[in-house]
C-alpha cells in the first residue's frame, strides 16, 4: 500500500481514539411486583489523537418484558431509533418510547454533550518517532520506531460509582504485516489474526502510565481502543 493511501487511512481512523464505558442498569426484581423494563447500557466516546474527548453517546438495549412504554430521564442532544421507525415522545429532561412493536429487544442511541461528560479517567496521549517527539499525523507511513504513550489519570469529577468500580483496559494494536516488532513493558500481548495487541490494565482509582514501541518500515494503525468495564470481585 502506498504511503499516501496509508496517510489517508490514518487520518480517518488512527487519529481517533475510542473510549468505551460499559455498564448495566435495570429495575431490581421485587417479589409480587409487575414486570419492568430491563436496560443494558454501553457508552461510546471518541477521543482525538491526544486524548481529548470529542464525541460521546449511549446505546441502550431494552428488554420490554411485556411493558408497553419506557421513560428515560436524561439530557440528550440527539436520539436515534436503532430498531424500528417509532418516534420518541420528548419532554423536559426525559424521553418516552412506545414499545408496542418493539419485540423482544429494542435499541436506541442518545447523543450526549461531550463538554459535560465525565469518564472515570482522563487521558493524555503523546507520540515519538525514533526517540523524538512527533505529531500523530506525521506517523502515517513512518519508517522507524513509533512510540505511543498513554497517561490515564483518575477523574475526581466522575460519578463515585464509576470511580470506584470501573476497570481500565488500554489496547494498542500493531498490524504485523507492516510492523516487525512490538515492545510494551507491563502489558499482556494478544494475537488476533495478523494483529498483535498490547493490553494494559488499571484497577479503579489507579493511575495508568502505558508505553508501546512499534517498529515498522511503513507504519499504519487503526487506532487505540480504551475500555472501561465494571469489575466484580
Please tell me what the overall shape is: elongated
Query: In total, how many beta strands?
Result: 17
Give the strand order, joined by hyphens, for the main sheet. 5-8-3-2-1-17-12-15-14
Rg: 21 Å
- Structural class, by secondary structure, is mainly beta
Fraction in helix: under 10%
| Overall pLDDT metric | 87
Major sheet attributes: 9 strands, mixed
Strand content: over 45%
Summed up, the helix count is: 2
Poorly predicted ranges: 1-16
Q: What is the string of helix and strand elements?
A: HEEEEEEEEEEEHEEEEEE
In short:
With 233 residues, this protein is mainly beta. It has helices spanning 3-14, 160-165, and strands spanning 17-26, 38-47, 53-63, 69-73, 78-81, 89-91, 94-98, 106-112, 121-129, 132-134, 144-154, 166-175, 179-183, 188-192, 195-202, 208-216, 225-230.
Please describe what this structure looks like.
This protein is mainly beta and about 230 residues long. It has helices at about 5-15, 160-165, and strands at about 15-25, 40-45, 55-65, 70-75, 80, 90, 95-100, 105-110, 120-130, 130-135, 145-155, 165-175, 180-185, 190, 195-200, 210-215, 225-230. The protein has a nine-stranded mixed beta sheet with strand order 5-8-3-2-1-17-12-15-14. It is elongated, with a radius of gyration of 21 Å.
